[in-house]
Amino acid sequence: DARVWFTFDDSRKAELLLNQSNERTDEVMAMLRAGKPIPGNVLSALRERNARAVRILEDHPDELALLARVREQSAEQEDLLLVLWGDLAESARDDYAEVVATLHNVQLRTSGTPGSVSPDDLAAGVIHISGSAELAAEGVWLLGGVEVRIDLRTRGDNELEPGQMVRVVAARGSDGRLLALEVTAVSDGPPDQQYIVSGTLEDVGDGEVVIAGQRIAITARTLLKLRLQRGQQVEIRVDDIDGQAVASSVEGSAGDTDEAASALLAYEGIIEGAVSTDEVRNDWVVGGQQFTVTPSTEIDARGGVLAEGARARMEAVVEDGDVIAKRVVIIADAEDAGEDIVRIEGVLEAGDDESWTVSGIEVVAPAEAETPEVGSLVTLEGRLIDDHLVLEKLVTTFTPGRSGLALIRGTIRRIEESGAWQIGLLRVEIPDETVVLGEPQVGSRVFIWGSRDDEGALQAVYVNILTRTTVVPPASDE
């Protein structure tokens, strides 16, 4: 009888600890919504409760339901923390490494998988990268040219085939080496139904928001990194769930306030010099412009190898004078990079006959181009001459109406007879005057700047298609 009561007490303790761990997760989510940095003491409390629960349950292997719960809960908490490096208080980074290592090891221990991850493996944060997997040595793979260790400690699809497209979240150790914590195979099937929309929140309702004219559901599983308000500049990652647009995450623009935040900058050019992913912050030069790559930067190397000479598209925001890369997309390998053309897409924030400020960076105004209205979308082309960027052409200028501009990134799901495209669940009209770089096909990955017309339809202004086979450049600057 005493043994039965002891088991009951231990099980109840483990359950209580897991409940308290969930409360700490709720605390993290509340801080994110309020725009507050996550302190180390909350992470430490979460780690300590999970670790104590596992120690109790290891003495009671017959508690299968609780063991399954701690494993699943730890996986969900790790998934959350792996996208929150940029939201930490700087003093919390050691606690972050400790808690992510603990959560990962809980899953290994409760599933009987050998090995463990140490906090030192996470000392320099994490990296998010997708690309083609090529075997470099036993247990070591190159993903878009970046060396990553993938072994039994890696969750997900860790038995890879050479040439397979994968998405990886990797821990970066104090020595700069990368260890994959999670691998997801990218399907060769129908086009990816997830898409990303950046723009102005047109409306905020009960459990939903409206952006670019589309209603998007906000659920209990949506990762909210701000308190939603109409008129905010946000980026929403959208999933197609049974035909409904559901936000998997919502985050705001850079800066402490909307007024302080520069608009998103898209910049395409050739990577100059060596490319490193070893440090917490790495400086890369693309098309003559320096970018800072952080653990929050998403690296998409599906289009080629991340290396000097490759053509890359950088999506960035300016923070305190630094150009911080939010997303890096490799468009072509060095041998296929083509002409050394620089393309800039962004919002004109200031300008005169001599210089323009486009989404936070200052450029020399293109010759013989009239300065557009402040707030206009501008797309520019130029090239580096003697290490100086010379802008030769104002490709597009567009002054949006009250609905503002939206930037959509995704895959063409369908091309209608009318010429409109469907990106995920979003329908985009392509008027004759739209500037389109590349040849659209179902399955093509696209970047679309658009705005709603008077009837509410989303119309493309400028379209950039990856893996471009041709260039279709209407000459109009209208």
UniProtKB/TrEMBL annotation:
InterPro entries: DUF5666. Pfam families: DUF5666 (PF18914). Residues 139-183, 199-251, 268-328, 409-463 form the DUF5666 domain. This is DUF5666 domain-containing protein. It comes from marine sediment metagenome.
